[in-house]
Amino acid sequence: MSDFSGMEDLLQDFLTESSELLSDVDNKLVELEKRPDDKHLLNDIFRGFHTIKGGAGFLNVDALVNLCHRTENLFDKLRNMELRLNPELMDVILAATGVVREMFGALAQARTPQPASSVLLAQLDAALEGRPPVAAAPAPAPVVSSPSNSSEPDWTALYHALVGGSPAAAAPAPVARPAAPVPTPAATVPVAAVAKPSPPVQQSTAPLTPAVVTRTEEPGLRPAAPSASAKPAVSSQQLSSQETTIRIDTNRLDQVLNLSGEIGLTKNRLTTLRSDILSGKTDAATLKALDEAIGQLDLLVSDLQNAVMKTRMQPIGRLFQKYPRLARDLARQLGKDVELVITGEETELDKTMLEDLNDPLVHLVRNAVDHGVETVEERIAAGKPPKSIVQLSATQVGDHILIEIADDGKGMRPDVLRRKAIEKGLIDLEAANSMDDKQSLQLVFMPGFSTKDQISSISGRGVGMDVVKTNILKLNGRIDIQSVVGEGTRFTISLPLTLAILPVLVVKVCNQPFAVPLAMVREIIPIRLDQVQEVSGRATIVVRDEILSVRSLAGLIGWEETQPPQFGVLMQTTEYSFILAIDSFIGRDDVVIKPLQNIRPKGIAGATLSGDGSVVLVLDMESLLDSSQAENSAIRTSRLLESMSKH
Question: What is the CATH number of the domain that holds 489?
Answer without folding.
Answer: 3.30.565.10
